[in-house]
Amino acid sequence: MLRRTALAGALGLIAGAATLTSSAKASMDPAAFVNNLGYQLQMVNTIASPELRLGRFHELFREDFDITGLGRFVLGRFWWVFDPLERQEFLTLFDDYVVLIYSDRLSEYAGNGYRPKATGSRLAPDGVIVTSEIVRDSGSFRAPVQPIRIDWHLTVRDGVYKISDVIIAGLSMATNGRSQLEGVVERNGGRAQAILAVMRQQIAAAQ
């Protein structure tokens, strides 16, 4: 579930580094928000150091993702099983979970001259969904590839857009994350607290 490069010290390594900001007021065109985010993801993928790259992803996701709302959705019915302290621990661990899982997947689609480009948007019951496709930069000489559709589900938190789900080629990453946690509970005799134990172990192993 959780994997790849260590998180330890990543944020400290990028302290003071110049960064772009993509957080946008809800009055901003949602397509422009996604285009700006796509550009930033592409820039992050040009960072040679794995630790620095992961640290920048961490900054970007904290800035643009609805971590609390996404975490509650992914935890699902187990949110009501956890006591307040367990909920808080889960959300703290989930912050790293989002970085590890989403950075892996989005790195596949926002590098090597490619980036998401918004093609339209539509209203949703709790926000707006921006449809985008992976397109090549004009300077790329790579052979054409079939466009990959990515839908960004945006909600409004404190007057700014936040990402509550990313749907890549029809696969909801939020729904997939919930399925993974349900599998952890099932494999551990129905104990919801096993989610915390597994997340602790995996994060510790990555440090």
List keywords for this structure.
single chain; alpha+beta; Nuclear Transport Factor 2, Chain: A; 20% strand
Description:
The protein has 207 residues and is an alpha+beta fold. The protein has one domain (10-206): Nuclear Transport Factor 2, Chain: A (Roll). 46% of the residues lie in helices and 20% in strands. The protein is built from seven helices and five strands; from the N terminus they run H-H-H-H-H-E-E-E-E-E-H-H. The protein has a five-stranded antiparallel sheet. Strand 3 (149-157) and strand 4 (160-168) form a beta hairpin. Helix 4 packs across helix 5. The protein is globular and about 45 Å long. Mean pLDDT is 80; it is low at 2-23.
Distance between the termini: 15 Å
Integer count of domains: 1
CATH topology: Nuclear Transport Factor 2, Chain: A
Order of helices and strands: HHHHHEEEEEHH
Q: Give the name of the CATH superfamily.
A: Tgt2/MlaC
Structural class: alpha+beta
Enumerate the strands of the largest sheet in spatial order, edge to edge or round the barrel.
Answer: 1-2-3-4-5
Beta-strand content? 15-25%
* Largest sheet: number of strands, sense, barrel closure: 5 strands, antiparallel
Number of helices: 7
Number of strands: 5
CATH architecture: Roll
Low-pLDDT stretches = 2-23
Q: Please tell me what the overall shape is.
A: globular
Whole-number mean pLDDT = 80
Please write out the topology.
Blueprint: H1 10-13, H2 30-44, H3 50-64, H4 67-75, H5 84-107, E1 114-124, E2 127-136, E3 149-157, E4 160-168, E5 171-172, H6 173-187, H7 194-206
Antiparallel strand pairs: 1-2, 2-3, 3-4, 4-5
